[in-house]
Design brief:
Length: about 200
């Protein structure tokens, strides 16, 4: 038995993703069993999407290996359609009150996305703002969000918290984007609380 086989056996026994697999895969903090189920869900999502080459009613943002490219594509397609310079376009994030199951068709511009979680706070769906987290709710799921491109000078800048989006709770190297979420509190409160959106928990 080679040392590589022994390392693989040890990883399988300890329910960790083997290092050669993790090197070729997306960032994840999940154990092997959860990671493999997540991988199957990603493949299923992509197969459904490529089956008819139509934009799904809501996009599972977590399912992308590189979500930044999808977010950039939203901006590029809108900028091309409206004749805007790409460097003067920003991504507007509107959190809806809907669940994934309630949406039957994609929006005319942009995309509905789901599968994000908020860490450090929660989203108050009734008020439509960031609110204090509840006890024992470490990362509550977010409602469906509408992402669309707008001219950078028309993006909401008051009463918003520039919320970073990360792929995993490790944050740092897994940074994806910054979504501007509505808040009644000063943004500094959420900065101190370490509020962020996560694609997987």
């Amino acid at each position: 038995m080679t040392s590589d086989m022994e390392t693989l056996q040890s990883a399988l026994y300890l329910d960790t993703v083997p290092e050669p697999w993790a090197r070729r895969a997306y960032p994840s903090t999940a154990g092997l069993a959860a990671w493999f189920l997540d991988l199957l869900n990603r493949v299923k999502e992509l197969e459904a999407w490529t089956g008819d080459f139509a934009m799904p009613s809501t996009v599972w943002l977590t399912g992308f290996f590189n979500p930044q490219s999808f977010l950039t594509a939203i901006m590029q397609s809108t900028a091309r359609k409206n004749g805007w310079p790409l460097d003067q376009v920003a991504l507007q994030c509107d959190v809806t009150k809907r669940n994934r199951e309630e949406l039957r068709s994609p929006p005319r511009e942009g995309a509905y996305v789901h599968g994000l979680f908020m860490e450090g706070a929660r989203w108050d769906a009734q008020a439509g703002i960031i609110a204090e987290g509840k006890l024992k709710e470490l990362a509550p799921p977010m409602p469906v969000m509408l992402l669309r491109a707008v001219p950078a000078d028309k993006q909401d800048s008051r009463g918003v918290y520039p919320c970073p989006v990360y792929k995993t709770p490790q944050r740092g190297p897994t940074y994806v984007w910054t979504f501007h979420l509505k808040t009644k509190e000063k943004p500094s409160k959420w900065v101190l609380a370490g509020v962020a959106l996560l694609l997987q928990i």
